[in-house]
Amino acid sequence: MGPHERWTALLDILGRDGRLDVGSAATELHVSAATIRRDLDHLSEQQLLTRTRGGAAPASVAYDLPLRHKSSRFAEQKSRIGAAAAALIPAGSVVGINGGTTTSQVARALVTQPVLAPAPGSGGGAEAVMDEGIVYTIVTNALNIANDMAVRRTVKLVVTGGVARPSSYELVGPLAEPTLVRVHLDYAVLGVDGFDMKVGATADHEGEAAVTAQMVARAARVILVADSSKLGRASFARVCTADAVAVLVTDTDADDAFLAEARAAGIEVVVA
Asked: pLDDT for 127-174, tens place per residue?
């Protein structure tokens, strides 16, 4: 288990139990207590938790929103997918992220991973942002992701308007559009309810699909993150066609035939 996977696992333990003990965490993750202490120090520096004697407690900002955001299946796969997707995004990028359990993992991975160099050709704008201490600009319609990112000193956070959906914490409706039509995104990271090569990327709720479609329209590159259960199925509302997706990040249980079809269509496939 690498450092990023441990950090995510420690945050999951903290969210599950409400507190974290160094010894118990070391046993659960099969690493030394010294490693856990170093990891907790790192996460504390990132303001993701508060160090206590012998362990850690939740930070003063609440991290229960992402943990309550739908009862997450495939948690381990989504953690790996999040880390793999974040690794594709260089420093200085403007990143649109919609709501979802997998995209929440991407956002968390972005602020805990080692900083990647600005992309070649990104220009002086990215360098200027880096000089100001901002590593990423994140544009989101997800309240849970915004809650996590708001305290990040290395993140410039832009939140759309809209009406909140209690089941997903996403802001939807016409009030979200004025923000999105005024921005350019280097990357749009999409969580979806279904991805089919013929139908495209889809969502269960038409309002969420409409906002995500706006992100796609504003993005230079679209990264779709989906665990294997979402592949080969279509939901009610279409977000975009398959040819709008540049990269698909999924897990090792994904159907080989589906992945071959995606690659044949020109989609870069990353299996985490």
From this structure: 545 556 889 999 999 999 999 999 999 999 999 999 999 878 999 999
Look at residues 115, 117, 116, 98 and name the one whose alpha carbon lies nearest to residue 107. 98
Q: Give the count of domains, the chain.
A: 2
Give the range of the structural domain holding residue 261, as residue numbers without chain letter: 65-271
Q: For the stretch 188-207, what's the b/e string if a residue is b when 16 or more beta carbons lie within 10 angstroms of its beta carbon?
A: bbbbbbbbbbeebbbbebeb
What is d(CA 3, CA 6) in angstroms, rounded to the nearest whole number?
5
CATH number of the domain that residue 27 is part of: 1.10.10.10
H/E element, 170: strand 170-172
- Looking at residue 228, the DSSP 8-state letter turns out to be G
Instruction: Tell me the CB-side half-sphere exposure of residue 41, using CA atoms within 13 A.
Output: 6
pTM equals: 0.73
